[in-house]
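Backbone-to-sequence.
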C-alpha cells in the first residue's frame, strides 16, 4: 500500500496514512523508558532500529529490539518470533546513578551515562533482513557482536557469529544475496571502541563459515554498510567512513570510487532499479544514475589499455514539446534532474595523455559525428549553441553524452540570428556504431536509437526528414563558405589598397570592388546586427532564413510539408543567384592589375 509509511526512532514506531493524514503509534511496546536503565526495559530498542516489510509477504512487518517482532496487521498487534539474540552483558545494561541514588547500592551503578534517550540503550538487534530468494530465511546482527540466522521463519535460530569476531563489534548491516540463498554479506565496526579496522565478511553456507573481504580498503577506513547488486552477481558496494568502494569479484578486491563522490561518511545505501542511492553523514542523499556500466565491468577490464562499454539504447525525443521539458528545466513540483538526453557513452582508460576519439557511424557505415579529447580551434559555436568541449581522457572511467545530433553547419563567429542558431539535425532512429580510439588501440560497440514511443512516424518518414534537414544544414555551410570567400577577397584587396596601389584609377577600382563584395555579402548574412533586436532595423538575410526553416521543420517528427520543400528550393535559387553574381565579379576583375592572384 503506497499510502502507508512506517517510521521508527528511539523506541517508537509509527504508521502514517497519506489518505487520512493520521499517524498511529504501533510500537510493540509503547511504554516510555527515559531515565531508566536498559536492564529494566521490557524491550530494548535502538535509536534507529530495523523496520522491515517482507519481500515475500506484504502483510508481514518486522521490527527488532533484543528480539524479533512480527506483525501481520500493519502493527495493530505483534508476536515475538525469537529469543534474545544479543550478548546482553549486564555491564552494558547498567546506567550511572541518578541524583537521589546511592552509588554503592543502586539501583544503578553501571558505566552507561544517564542521557539514555535511545542511543545509549545497548544489547539490541541492530541489523535484520529477510532473504529476497527464500521466505522465512532471516538474518539478525546485534550491536554487541552477535549474528544469528533462522531458516524456518523464526521457529529456530542458530548462532553464526564469525569465528574470531571481536567482542562487542557492532553489526551494522547484513545483506542477503539476491543470487544465492546461502550467501550473505556483513558490515561491522568498532570505532566506538577505538578500533578503526574495516570489518566486511561474506558467507556462502548460511553463516557456517565467514570470509573477511577487505582487500583494497584502507586499514583504518571502517565500514558501516555493504550491498550486493541485485542484477549482477559479484558486484558489491561498500560504504566507509571516508567514502565508497566497489568490488567486481564478490569482495575479492575493492576499488575506491573516485569520480565526483566526496570524502564523506556513508551511512547506508540501496540499489533502486538501476540507480545506487546513498545516505551520507549529514542526512544528505547522493544518487548514481544508471548502474549499467558497473554491471558490465570486471577486474579484467581495468587491466586493458582502454575499454568501451556497451551503451544503453537511447530514446530519441524532442525537448520542449508537451510532456518533455527543455534541457535543464523540470515540471513544477519536480525534484532532481532528468537523465541526459542522448546516448550515454562510458569508456575506461588505463593511462591519461593519449588522444582519444569517439566516432559515430550509421548502419551504412557513414560517419555521423566525431569527438576528440583534443581541442579543435577551428570549431566555432554560437552564443546559444556553443561548440562542444573536448571529451574526457582521464585515467579511469570517463563519460560522454552524445546528444544524437549531427555536427552543426559551418559557423560564422559573431553572427546574429533572429531566433534560431543553425545546428545539426537529430539522428534518425536505427542502428549506430561507436568506435573508440586511444593511441593505437581501437574498439567499437553498437546500439540502437529508439523512436519516441508516443509517435507513429515510420522509419521511411524519419529518414526523409533527416535527409531534408541535412540538405538544409549543408546549404547553410555552403552559404557560409561563400561568406568566408568574400571576406578573404575583401581583406586581401583592402591590404593592397592600403599598401598603395599605383594609379588613382586602380585604387578607385579596388574600392569599388570592395563595395560590391560588401553588397553581395549582405545578401547572404546580416553582418550589421550586433544583437538580436538589431534585426528589426537590419533585416534577416538568406542564412537566417535557412536556419529558421531548418528549426521549424525539425519541430515535428514528421515529413516536411510541401511548402517547406518549395521554400527551400526558392532559397537555394536565390543563394545561387548571389553566388553567380560573385563569380561574375571575380571573373570580370583584372586581379593582376590590383596586385593579387585569385583562382
Amino acid at each position: 500500500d503506497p499510502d502507508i509509511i512506517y517510521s521508527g526512532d528511539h523506541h517508537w514506531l509509527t504508521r502514517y496514512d497519506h489518505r487520512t493524514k493520521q499517524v498511529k503509534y504501533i510500537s510493540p511496546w509503547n511504554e516510555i523508558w527515559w531515565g531508566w536503565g536498559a536492564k529494566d526495559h521490557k524491550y530494548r530498542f535502538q535509536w534507529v532500529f530495523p523496520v522491515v516489510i517482507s519481500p515475500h509477504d506484504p502483510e508481514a512487518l518486522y521490527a527488532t529490539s533484543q528480539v524479533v517482532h512480527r506483525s501481520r496487521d500493519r502493527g495493530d498487534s505483534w508476536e515475538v518470533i525469537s529469543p534474545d539474540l544479543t550478548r546482553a552483558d549486564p555491564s552494558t545494561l547498567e546506567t550511572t546513578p541518578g541524583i537521589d541514588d546511592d552509588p554503592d547500592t543502586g539501583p544503578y551503578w553501571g558505566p552507561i551515562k544517564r542521557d539514555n534517550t535511545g542511543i545509549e540503550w545497548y544489547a539490541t538487534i541492530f541489523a535484520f533482513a529477510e532473504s529476497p530468494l527464500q521466505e522465512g530465511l532471516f538474518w539478525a546482527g546485534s550491536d554487541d557482536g552477535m549474528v544469528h540466522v533462522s531458516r524456518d521463519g523464526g521457529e529456530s535460530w542458530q548462532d553464526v557469529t564469525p569465528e574470531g569476531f571481536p567482542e562487542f563489534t557492532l553489526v551494522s548491516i547484513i545483506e542477503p544475496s539476491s543470487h544465492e540463498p546461502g550467501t550473505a554479506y556483513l558490515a561491522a565496526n568498532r570505532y566506538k571502541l577505538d578500533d578503526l579496522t574495516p570489518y566486511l565478511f561474506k558467507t556462502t553456507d548460511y553463516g557456517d563459515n565467514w570470509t573477511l573481504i577487505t582487500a583494497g580498503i584502507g586499514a583504518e577506513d571502517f565500514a558501516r554498510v555493504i550491498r550486493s547488486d541485485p542484477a549482477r552477481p559479484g558486484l558489491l558496494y561498500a560504504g566507509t567512513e571516508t567514502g565508497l568502494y566497489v568490488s567486481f569479484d564478490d569482495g575479492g578486491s575493492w576499488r575506491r570510487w573516485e569520480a565526483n563522490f566526496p570524502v564523506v561518511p556513508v551511512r547506508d545505501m540501496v540499489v533502486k532499479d538501476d540507480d545506487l542511492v546513498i545516505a551520507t553523514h549529514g542526512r544528505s542523499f547522493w544518487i548514481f544514475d544508471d548502474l549499467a556500466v558497473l554491471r558490465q565491468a570486471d577486474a579484467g577490464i581495468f587491466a586493458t589499455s582502454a575499454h568501451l562499454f556497451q551503451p544503453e539504447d537511447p530514446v530519441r525525443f524532442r525537448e520542449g514539446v508537451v510532456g518533455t521539458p527543455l534541457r535543464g528545466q523540470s515540471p513544477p513540483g519536480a525534484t532532481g534532474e532528468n537523465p541526459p538526453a542522448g546516448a550515454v557513452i562510458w569508456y575506461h582508460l588505463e593511462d591519461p595523455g593519449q588522444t582519444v576519439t569517439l566516432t559515430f557511424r550509421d548502419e551504412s557505415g557513414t560517419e555521423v559525428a566525431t569527438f576528440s579529447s583534443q581541442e579543435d580551434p577551428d570549431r566555432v559555436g554560437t552564443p546559444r549553441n556553443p561548440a562542444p568541449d573536448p571529451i574526457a581522457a582521464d585515467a579511469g572511467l570517463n563519460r560522454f553524452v552524445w546528444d544524437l545530433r549531427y555536427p552543426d553547419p559551418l559557423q560564422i563567429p559573431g553572427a546574429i540570428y533572429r531566433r534560431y542558431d543553425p545546428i545539426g539535425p537529430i539522428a534518425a532512429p536505427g542502428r549506430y556504431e561507436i568506435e573508440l580510439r586511444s593511441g593505437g588501440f581501437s574498439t567499437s560497440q553498437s546500439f540502437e536509437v529508439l523512436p519516441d514511443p508516443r509517435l507513429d512516424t515510420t522509419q521511411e518518414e524519419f529518414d526523409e526528414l533527416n535527409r531534408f534537414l541535412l540538405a538544409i544544414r549543408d546549404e547553410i555551410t555552403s552559404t557560409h563558405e561563400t561568406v568566408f570567400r568574400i571576406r578573404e577577397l575583401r581583406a586581401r584587396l583592402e591590404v593592397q589598397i592600403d599598401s598603395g596601389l599605383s594609379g588613382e584609377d586602380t585604387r578607385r577600382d579596388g574600392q569599388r570592388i570592395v563595395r560590391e563584395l560588401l553588397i553581395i555579402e549582405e545578401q547572404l548574412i546580416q553582418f550589421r546586427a550586433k544583437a538580436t533586436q538589431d534585426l528589426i532595423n537590419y533585416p534577416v538575410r538568406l542564412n537566417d532564413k535557412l536556419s529558421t526553416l531548418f528549426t521549424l521543420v525539425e519541430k515535428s517528427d514528421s515529413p516536411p510539408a510541401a511548402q517547406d520543400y518549395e521554400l527551400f528550393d526558392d532559397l537555394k535559387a536565390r543563394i545561387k543567384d548571389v553566388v553567380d553574381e560573385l563569380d561574375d565579379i571575380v571573373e570580370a576583375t583584372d586581379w593582376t592589375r590590383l596586385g593579387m592572384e585569385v583562382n
